[in-house]
Amino acid sequence: MPLAAAVVVYQGKWRWKVPLSLPGAVADPATASHLSAIRYLLVDVLRTPIEHLPPLPFLRVAFMIWQFDRKSPGTLKDRLVELARAALALGVDDLTAMVYYLWGETDERGVALLSEVLDEVVPGRKEQIMLTEGEQLVAQGRAEGLIKGEAKGEAKGRREILLRQLRRRFGEIRGDVVERIQAASIDELDNLIDRVFNAKSLTDVFGADRRH
Questions:
Q1: What confidence tens digit (pLDDT) does each residue in 86-113 have?
Q2: Measured between alpha carbons, how far is 192 from 37 in angstroms, rounded to an integer?
Q3: Domain assignments of the chain as residue spans, ordered by start
Q4: Are the C-beta atoms of 153 and 140 separated by less than 8 Å?
């Protein structure tokens, strides 16, 4: 019989005061009487020191982002620099994981700000960090292809990655550009994905021979 553990991840402003047992956490006494006295693990994200966060970079950095998101002093750039320095102190993998999370959830201005932060925190190594993040996105597409057992799945993963990054950086994409992406081969998609990381416009990605 597989083992199971109950975990509550909490990031609220106030301290957690609910009893750490399933019966104690249920307000209805009738319902509580039917629950076994199993305790659950509480992860109070805002009050857990960074060195006590889970050791996996992607999970640890996700909790760190929650922590720094609640800090009010300073500008957004100041907070991002502080977060990036804290992630780098744990290792390059943690900093790369931070870039992966934030790049995937921001727009063109956010990407520019993230680029400034990396220039300040890791001078001369920004391109390496950004490239590593891009390789992770490409790896996701490869994983989809392996799961489906066919090249179509791999190409589909790359198309989704490319469209996602283009929309994050440049807004809604024209229909003819989407059609070109849908018709592209895996090699062509890889080439386009590589161009996105340094592109300042759609023309930089697709070439000056087309109107975007």
A1: 889 888 888 888 887 787 666 667 777 8
A2: 56
A3: 1-47, 53-198
A4: no
Q: Tell me which residue of 107, 116, 51 sits closest to 81, measured CA to CA.
A: 116
Place of tokens 């992966």: 100
Q: In the structure encoding, which two tokens stand for residue 176, read together? A: 């003819």
Per-residue pLDDT reduced to its tens digit, 133-177: 555 555 455 444 444 444 556 677 778 888 888 887 888 888 888
Structure tokens at 180: 């070109």
Name residue 201's amino acid. Answer: S
49 close to 17: Cβ distance less than 8 angstroms: no
- pTM here is 0.51
> Is the CA virtual torsion 169, 173, 177, 180 positive or negative?
positive
Please answer whether residues 203 and 212 qualify as being in contact, where contact means their C-beta atoms are separated by less than 8 angstroms. Answer: yes
